[in-house]
Amino acid sequence: MQHALAAALALALSVLPAVAAELIMVEQKGCSHCIAWKDTIGPIYPKSPEGEFAPLRVVDIREGAPDGVRYDRPVTFTPTFILVEDGTEIGRIEGYPGEDFFWSLLDMLLKRETDYTGSG
Predict the structure, then answer these.
(1) CATH numbers and ranges of domains, the chain
(2) What is the sign, positive or negative, of the torsion defined by CA atoms of 57, 107, 103, 88?
(3) Which one of 17, 69, 102, 106 counts the least CB within 10 Å of its CB?
(4) ω before 79 within 30° of 0 (cis)?
(5) What is the pTM assigned to this prediction?
(6) CA angle 51-90-57, nearest 5°?
(7) What is the pLDDT of residues 33-66, one digit of tens each?
(8) DSSP notation for the chain
């Protein structure tokens, strides 16, 4: 009986989606592109399918990677959006190319690097 329960639990765990990703926005004071992102996308991001899948955390470039997070390489541009899963960088978008391009780039990154299926 215990073996059957253990097997059922293992099977259930194997079909669960991966741990949700996190999107880290690295910014710096006075960054006009950071401000533009916060004005146009910031208010809607948490309500979007992408924002629900990969919640946003904003950090200052001078602080480096947050505790428990490892970047693949240093951040040199702001904004830089780093997609993290289990504390490890799995992709990034450097700069803010405007609203339409941002959503497209983020959608491609999420679909390529995670189990995100998108909104359409």
Answers:
(1) 19-113 (3.40.30.10)
(2) positive
(3) 17
(4) yes
(5) 0.82
(6) 40
(7) 999 999 999 999 999 999 999 999 999 999 999 9
(8) -HHHHHHHHHHHHHHSPPPPPEEEEEE-TT-HHHHHHHHHTTTTGGGSHHHHHS-EEEEEGGG-SPTT-B-SS---SSSEEEEEETTEEEEEEES---HHHHHHHHHHHHHHHSS-----
